[in-house]
User: Fold this.
Amino acid sequence: MLNPVLRDPAALPRLALTLLAVLLLWPGLTLSELNLVVLFDERNATNMGRFLVDFWPLAHDREFLRLLARATLETLAIATAGMALALLIAIPGALLASRALSLSAVHRGGRPAWWAQALRWPVRSLLIVLRSVPEIVWALLFVRAVGLGPTAGVLAIAITYSGMLGKVYAEIFESVDPRPSRALLVAGSPRLAAFAYGVLPNAGAEMLSYTVYRWECAIRASVVMGFVGAGGLGQQIDLSMRMFAGGEVASMLLTFLLLVLLADQLSRLLRARLL
Amino acid sequence: MKPSADKRLGNYALLLALLAAVLASFSFLGIDLGALVSGDSLRQMGRYASSFFSPDFSPPHVRAIGHGALETLAMSAIGTLLAALLGLLLALPASGRFGWLALSGSRFLLNALRAIPELVWAALVVLAAGLGPNAGTLALALHTTGVLGRLFAEALENTPNEPAEAIRLSGGGHVAAFCYGTLPAVWPQLIAYSLYRWENNIRMASVLGFVGAGGLGQMLYVSLSLFQEAQAATVILAMLVLVLAVDAFSGWARQRWVSA
Assistant:
């Protein structure tokens, strides 16, 4: 007789699915060379232990604090300058890529003619390529092209974020009420005027709020990009890590966390005000 | 609706402050945009960029890239799987099942894991476990544990607990109540979160190699360091294809299965 307490009707299929997943993932285990034992290898463990013990007390001598403040300001400046440059590329890109200002679409119920769409394609694919290559790859490339330092970080943020902002702006332009801009276009106004008076009043708040959110992301990205030599806090963390200076790494990680927290609060504040 | 005068004044002040911040940033960094786009440096950059326009498609290199891409996929898959297991383990106390002490402790741990970016974890793990994909897998697992643990804890908190209670009342143990009362309801959500993070992690895994953690990133870093721009261009192309393929697949899968 079956034991009603211990019987699970779905046990067999579940077991089969689990086995299948394990079989599929098995080659992945060898490819990823997963090996937790190295963490407890004696030499590695003592090295790491010494490094971690150094985390406390935090490094806080005067000279280091000055360096830390400079690196933090540099990170903020990289994010801000990168965003400013990104806007310079993103706004024209979005205007060119968006269907919202299409003249041929006005008489066709919002669907542009095929040749108009074909003309938008190059801009759209440029924006896709700009944002699909991760920012840290751009940073690595720019470090080789313009040298170590914040310039590479600024350019990398400018390029990746112009792709993202351009795409999102274009979508925002298309998502707002098209009737004001269409009325202006039909009445013969130039496209930029139709954009400024027909689209922007409705799209502005959303654009600003997304831009502020992206600025917050740019701060995080600029810290990470420092690891390939693009300046700011990340580069200092990388340097201190290579010197096994635990206290400095701990101070800088803490500063990074505070910076992210602060940027988060600031961006929430700004967005609440703008919307 | 007309904004009041002082709100408008505030907005102008805000705009001015933003403009000042941008100008201050440029002057603080000392970036000379004029010099950057001047003839000489632009020509130099152009020469550098043009060396990328002849990607190396020779069979051995393409095979190496294929291996690197597989390694990237494996790192992200195993890392996400580990993170899902660890995340579920930490989500149990973080959803308040074992008292407030365990709750605040596990929440703190999850927040700390999540707050440090993958790349910083990777740099730390490379110090602890040596170069190679193993470090990348562990770094992804650590960060993703923080993310998934928090999402899982929220999912667990939001599931109705009547089924589990019914099992408990009819004499089932805690484990049985969780497995047959709670888990079936949250299961789809847990899977959806894990898949979403996997998608993110594929993108991340392809760049973790910059700090020596294996995958396509390490190939790119090495070939750029050796000034092999042709080889580097192929790796960048492969990354681009990987990212676009993941995007397309996840978009398709979302429409196919998650559309509601």
About this structure: The CA atoms of residues 21 and 138 of chain B lie 39 Å apart. Chain B has eleven helices and no strands. The two ends of chain B are 36 Å apart (CA to CA).
